[in-house]
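Why GRF-type domain-containing protein? Reviewers of the renewal asked for a concrete example.
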Amino acid sequence: MPPSTPRRARRGGGGSGGSRRGVRAQAGPPKGLFETLNSKWYCDCTPRTQAAIRTVQKDGKNKGRKFWTCAQERRDQCGFFLWDDDARARELEAQEAAGQPPPS
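Here is what the prediction returned.
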């Protein structure tokens, strides 16, 4: 992708996905896009690019947990972050809405 391609501004807040008292706060529409035709996740870059799945390496309660994120170099990332278990739930919803059978 050419370096002159515009990108969304990086969002703050890291990627914990939580707030005080364990209540999740989600401002605006869900992040990312799941394309049911090719079963791939896309980040929030403009234009959208295929997201990457990664695994938490840092010691702590989430070590080993998988998540989706922007695949661009860190300085160019759009801030997209989605836990894989949340992604799978959204995938099923999208496939049901599209009239596709769930993966076997």
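Strands lie at 33-35, 40-42, 52-55, 66-69, 81-83. This is the kind of structural detail the renewal will allow us to pursue systematically.
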